[in-house]
Amino acid sequence: MGVEIENMEFFSVLKIAQEFNIPAGGVFCITNHTNENAHADFLKNHDKAKELLSEHVKCRIAELTAS
């Protein structure tokens, strides 16, 4: 089983980074499926996604700056 997601806005960021040979990456929190409940699911899950992303970034910064 694989994971399939789409983020066309970030694709353009990566394409420009590639063009100028700038290292780039992204971290994403998936909040909803693309169905009739998409907006409601997004609203329901948005705060938790922000919390998880914030925790991940703090941990990653600590890893990258550890001596």
Helix tally equals: 2
Q: Structural class from helices and strands?
A: mainly alpha
**Strand segment count:** 0
Unreliable sequence segments: none
CA radius of gyration: 15 Å
The main β sheet shows up as: none
Strand content: under 5%
Number of domains: 1
What do the pLDDT scores average to?
Answer: 91
Q: What global shape is seen? A: flat
Instruction: Give the H and E element order.
Output: HH
**Percent in helix:** 55-70%
End-to-end gap? 38 Å
3D architecture notes:
This protein is mostly helical and about 70 residues long. The protein has one domain (about 10-65). It is about 60% helix and about 0% strand. It has two helices and no strands.
In summary, what is this structure?
This protein has 67 residues and is an all-alpha fold.
Key attributes of the depicted protein:
60% helix, 67 residues, flat, mainly alpha, 2 helices
List strands and helices in order, with pairings.
Blueprint: H1 8-19, H2 38-65
